[in-house]
Design goal:
This protein has three domains: 77 residues, no CATH class; 191 residues, no CATH class; 65 residues. 68% of the residues lie in helices and 2% in strands. The chain is mainly alpha-helical. The chain has 14 helices and two strands, in the order αααααββααααααααα. Strands 1-2 form a two-stranded antiparallel sheet. The two termini are 23 Å apart.
């Protein structure tokens, strides 16, 4: 994926989020100054028309257009700088503030989620491993095994050559035979990790996806990524019922509360995943490993802050939420795989 395409994704993210934050990027430079609204003709009082809501001053220069574009992509009207620190360090406060109606300073959950998805998939396309096809049309992902298998194969060839010399001299080759057998097993295991075909799973839908993947792997993997991108929003309705199970029949908390919680939480997890991909691509595997410990901590802080739970109550629900989140993700991935196979 080219840098231009990545920038295009980022701009698309900003414009999509701007659709949910329509006042982003308004300034004075390049704007006209009317006394009446250009949309409905109502006399203007303040920066917006009190009748139809349109911005009082509209821009009519190319410079102002790109000024608004940059604000839409990078600033979210400045709200992103208020939202991200709370999302990272005080997610419970951010969620509760938005639920209670104090929203002017924050990016809305849906706008932030859409932006996060754009960022994540741009990162994936830049950092993911290259798809390779074997002679039999089988797909494998390069996971760094080639170097190790080459070293084992080199050692194996040396052991075979040594055995041939010992055998020619009439010597005992038992120890060398054992060494050669072990190295052959190790090499075979590496080859399987690099490209063994999957067998039947027992689930007809998944088996169909596997069959199609083996027959046309590049197409299926492309379709899975495309479907995951298009249907990422489905994670929200899939996850909300699981969160509801933590507070069944509660009169204090409603489905709307849970939806805001889930959407902000998914935004954070999506950005965290993107950071992990970047860390792995830069060779900082230990940092990527540390990031895997963050989700439960974030869930705990968000649960406690949003729902006003005690430490014990938050810990108990966090344990359940980790399991529920895994189940929701599994359902989503199976649905995406089935959709990609059917498409």
């Amino acid at each position: 994926m080219s840098e231009a395409q990545v920038l295009g994704d980022a701009i698309g993210a900003g414009l999509t989020a701007r659709a949910f934050e329509p006042t982003a990027g308004e300034g004075d430079s390049g704007h006209t100054h009317e006394s009446a609204c250009l949309n409905c003709g109502t006399p203007l009082i303040g920066s917006h028309c009190h009748n139809c809501g349109q911005t009082a001053h509209v821009h009519r220069t190319l410079g102002a257009f790109f000024h608004d574009l940059l604000h839409g992509v990078f600033h979210f009207e400045g709200k992103i700088w208020n939202t991200l620190p709370l999302l990272i360090f005080r997610p419970g406060k951010l969620t509760r503030e938005y639920i209670d109606g104090r929203r002017a300073s924050y990016v809305s959950p849906l706008a932030l989620f859409l932006f996060s998805v754009f960022v994540m998939f741009a990162v994936i396309q830049q950092t993911a491993g290259e798809l390779e096809l074997g002679k039999d049309g089988q797909a494998t992902i390069n996971v760094g095994l080639s170097k190790g298998s080459a070293e084992v194969e080199k050692s194996l060839n040396a052991a075979r050559a040594k055995r041939a010399v010992v055998e020619a001299k009439g010597g005992d080759t038992d120890d060398l035979d054992t060494e050669i057998e072990q190295q052959e097993r190790a090499l075979a295991a590496m080859h399987r990790l690099g490209g063994e075909k999957l067998s039947s799973t027992g689930f007809s839908i998944l088996d169909e996806v596997i069959d199609e993947t083996q027959s046309n792997p590049k197409l299926v993997l492309y379709k899975m990524q495309s479907h995951a991108y298009k249907y990422s929003w489905a994670l929200v309705p899939i996850s909300v019922p699981f969160l509801w199970l933590l507070f069944p029949f509660s009169r204090r908390f409603h489905l709307y509360d849970h939806t805001v919680f889930v959407t902000y939480s998914l935004s954070f997890m999506t950005l965290l995943f993107a950071c992990g991909m970047i860390a792995g691509a830069l060779g900082a595997e230990p940092l990527a490993g540390v990031l895997t410990l963050v989700p439960p901590i974030h869930m705990y802080k968000q649960l406690r802050g949003t729902y006003g739970l005690s430490r014990f109550g938050a810990l108990a629900r966090t344990s359940a939420l980790v399991i529920f989140a895994s189940m929701a993700l599994a359902i989503y991935l199976v649905a995406i795989a089935a959709e990609a196979g059917a498409g």
